[in-house]
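Hey, can you fold this?
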Amino acid sequence: MKIPLILGIVAAFLSACNPAKRDVVPQSPLSSTTATPVVATSLLINAKHQIRTTVYVVDDVVMVQMQNGTRQRLTGINPALYPDFQSVFFRIQDNNRDGFNEIAVLAGVSFGATERCYDVFHYNFKRGMFERRWEDFYCTSR
């Protein structure tokens, strides 16, 4: 009985100490107060409904800004990954063939960067926001 309680306390402590996972909403991509240079990437999520988003990194957070101006925090990241892997940091694909592209965000790389692992976020049309689906997490070689 004591071990699950201790593990819960340790997990809560580690979560609170990890700045990349804090639930913060940074400013828009045009903000000049950020320490990390902000490069915004425009992505087409659905051509039929003309849904576009802008995805960008602010410090240690990946943000999505919808065309109507609403912002959503997707995930925290290791900020050291972004400068070296900026060209492959975001991917879009429609793996489930629902007509909406998913956004894949680089979550980590193997030693030597031979494999890259991605978190996948699906667009929920009814809610108008992205949702992470853990079962779609994947790794790929270069």
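Oh, and this one too while you're at it.
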Amino acid sequence: MPDTHGEGTGVGEGSGVGDGSGDGLAVAAGGVRLVPETTQFAANWPVELRFQIRGVGGQAITRFVQEQDAAMHLYLIRSDLVGFQHVHPTMAADGTWTATLAAPASGLYRAYAAFTTAVDGRANRFVLSVALVVPGAAVPTPVPAPATTTVVDGYTLSLAAPQGPPRAGTTSPLTVTVSRDGQPVTDLQPYLASYAHLSAFHQNDLAFAHLHPLGPAAIGRSATGRGGPTLTFDALLPRPGAWRIYLQFRAAGQLHTAALTLTAR
């Protein structure tokens, strides 16, 4: 079973290591490799993606550090930046993880495994990824133009960059303000130990970034146990250009996923 004792802060090397400087596109980094059972799945049928995380010598790793209430986070996106999914696989005793995914439409996808495990006795965070194929005639969806607001399930999310558009490779603040019917939402509920999760995918190459809100209130430790209306993120995007952002938040007992496009300089 996953090791849930403590949280790692060390970072290994390679572009797949999730220290914010990587792009999530590596299948292997720091002596650790993502090994899927298969990379092709039938269209319009639920998917069980099975994979192992293997270390030096090709042995499956079975000890992982739980972070954000899960030992493994699995993200999926199609090449045209639609079909986003964020799930939490389960691990068998032999180190095989199983991620249950909603039925995907035809197209080319990328799956990202985000996790923390020990390498040379030191906890390291990784984001490794692999290309997946769902055969059939894919109907591409144009990436929407950059925007500062979007609406999902009756909630309006407003995005702002207090210091100007993010500059690739450097950290800059982003804020997201949540409202409903013109009123600020102040009862956001914790989801995976945070009041929001922001996953970003680069339009040209599917580079990946994942952000959480800053501050004690943003990670589920506010005095009231509720968050909002404004959440602040430290954005570190590794590429200039268009990024499709998926922001997940919980309100009124339901998980909501909003999407918009942001440009980094």
